[in-house]
Amino acid sequence: MPHKTKPKAQVIPPDAYPQLASKAQTAALARTLRSHVTAVTATRVIEESGEGLRDAVRFYVEELEAAGTNLVLVLDKAHEIRGFAETAGMLSTGRIADGLCRYCDEAEQRGIVPDAAVVALHVSAIGRTARDPDTMTHMNDVVAKELAQLAGRKLAESRKTLKNS
Amino acid sequence: MPGAAFEQLKVLIVEDNQHMRSLLRALLNSVGIREIAEASNGSSALNLLRERKCDMILTDLAMQPMDGLEFSRTVRTSEKSPNPFVPIIMITGHTERHRVEEARDAGVTEFLAKPITAQSLFSRLAEIMERPRAFVRTETYFGPDRRRKTPESYAGPWRRHDDFQDVQIQ
Question: Searching chain A, which residue's CA lies closest to the CA of residue B166?
Answer without folding.
Answer: A2
